[in-house]
Structures are given as structure tokens and as C-alpha cells.
Amino acid sequence: MATEILQLCPLMPSLEAALAERFTVHRFFEADDPEAFLDGNAGRLRGVVTGGHLGLPTDLAARLPALEIVAINGVGFDKVDLAEARRRGVRVSNTPDVLTEDVADLAIGLIVSALRQIPQGDAHVRAGRWLEGDLPLGSKVSRRRYGIFGFGRIGQAIARRLAGFDAEIGYASRSPVDTPVRAFPDIAALAAWSDVLVIAASASPETRNVVDAAVLEALGPRGLLVNVARGSLVDEPALIAALEAGRIAGAALDVFADEPRVPNQLLALPGVVVTPHMASATHETRQAMADLVLANLDAHFAGREMPSALV
């Protein structure tokens, strides 16, 4: 009989088809009565496939006595209790590296869009307002100071792209990095130096709301905040207050505190560019992520080393 696994969210159709070929897949997000489903099936479920935005809720994990592996279709693992997984001997994997380029590319796109007012320009033309006059002037992208908080794979990829804009680049990170890029002791010091503060760090209890009112104050009234990491790193009410009061100039955001719900106050602000957590959303990268999810599952159930195991 095929191994039974639990799917917690919709996935790319090709990945869902490949999972169905290998396993008996239970689509938990479609269950009419989740409690009844767990009562009847929990003891047979050996794997969970989930997204980084969702992870595996602790109470659900506790209901799965036969669980062996959690395969995350994404790079984020902050919503899986890794300590508890280690205690239980449950393997956990994610899909690093394969989405680095796309996330870094979107960060650049958000920066250019916000500083050069590309969304506003598009709306201006489509609404026929160009006939009435030009859009107000935007801001240069080149030769500015860019601070990157989080200087792992994605942060360094963003820095390489920014170098093409003749930019000054600084970073702050939990761990020092062997790089010629200027290091700052913490995010507040980095923000005070930066024209644009780019958030590219992992989500963790330590980084929750790390972009708070003090950091935004340090960034200043001409500063731009860009977030391609996780919404939990930014104190969203503090960000809205800073934007409304003009304490920072704008924000370009791919991630939010309570996705897919985005505060109307944020959407109403003219200096804000938003995208729907789409940094890894290309055909090529989503297929590479799917391939890595399958590779981790196949390796685990075959008793081989998993290619991207976290635990």
C-alpha cells in the first residue's frame, strides 16, 4: 500500500501530480471536517508537505504519531518547531538556493518600482491623466546607500545586483560574513546609514518585529523600506504610523504580517508598492522547488541522505 502523506496547502499542479504518483495524498486544506479526518487517518500519515508560509502548526504535529518527515515547499522554516521535530526524530527539509536569484531579482524590481514610481506611472497613463500633465518626479536608483539586513544567500545576491547601480552597500547580520561589504553592528545603525533598507533575513523569534519604530525613525523621512523576507520581521502598525507621519518616505513590500490580508491603511498610502508574496513565483524556480521537495521525500523513504535536510 502506498505511503500516506498530508498536503496542507495547494501546490504547483506538476508537483501535486508527482506526489499523487508516489503517495496516497490527503489534501487536508480541503477536508470538510478536519477533526473527523484526523480521528480516522492520523495514525497512518508518515509525511507532511507544506509551504513555508504555513509550516506545520504545533497542535497538528502533535496529532500525527507516525510522522517521519515534513517537506517544506519554500525556504522559510520558522513555522515548524525544529526542536520538537528533533525530539521526535522527525526529518524536516526546505528548498534553499533554488529561489535565491528570483528573490534577489524581485528585491531589485521593488526598489526600482518604488524609487522611480513605476506603478504610479502605469496607473497615470492607463487613467488618461498623462493628457492633464506629468507625474511628479521620482528618485534616483543609482549611487545611493543600500543597507541589507540579513546577508546570507539572498542578501548577498541582492548586493551583487545593486553593485551594478554603482551603489554603496552595507549589511547587518547575526553572523559575520567574509565580504568586503561594509558591516554594521545592528539594524538600527544600518538603517541610520541607509537610503534604502532591504530586509532579507530569516524569520525567527529573534527577528520578530526587528524593524520597529526606532529602526524606522533611524531610516528617516527620505528612506525607503523594502521587505522580501517575512512579514513578521516588520512591526506593521509601526510601519503604517511611520508612513502616515512621513517619518519614512515609502515602502516596497512582498510580504506581510497576516497574509493574504493586507491592512487597508497600508494600501491607501501613495508611497507604498505591494506584491502578493511572489518573490519565488517564476515557472523555473517553482519547478526547481518542486523537484527538491520530491527529492527530499524520495530520499527519506528510500533511506538515503536528504539533499536539503534542516533536521
TrEMBL record:
Keywords: NAD, NADP, Oxidoreductase. Belongs to the D-isomer specific 2-hydroxyacid dehydrogenase family. Residues 108-279 form the D-isomer specific 2-hydroxyacid dehydrogenase NAD-binding domain. GO terms for cellular component: cytosol. SUPFAM superfamilies: Formate/glycerate dehydrogenase catalytic domain-like, NAD(P)-binding Rossmann-fold domains. One of its GO terms (molecular function) is glyoxylate reductase (NADPH) activity. InterPro entries: D-isomer_2-hydroxyacid_DH, D-isomer_2_OHA_DH_cat_dom, D-isomer_DH_NAD-bd, NAD(P)-bd_dom_sf. Gene3D superfamilies: NAD(P)-binding Rossmann-like Domain. Residues 45-309 form the D-isomer specific 2-hydroxyacid dehydrogenase catalytic domain. This is 2-hydroxyacid dehydrogenase.
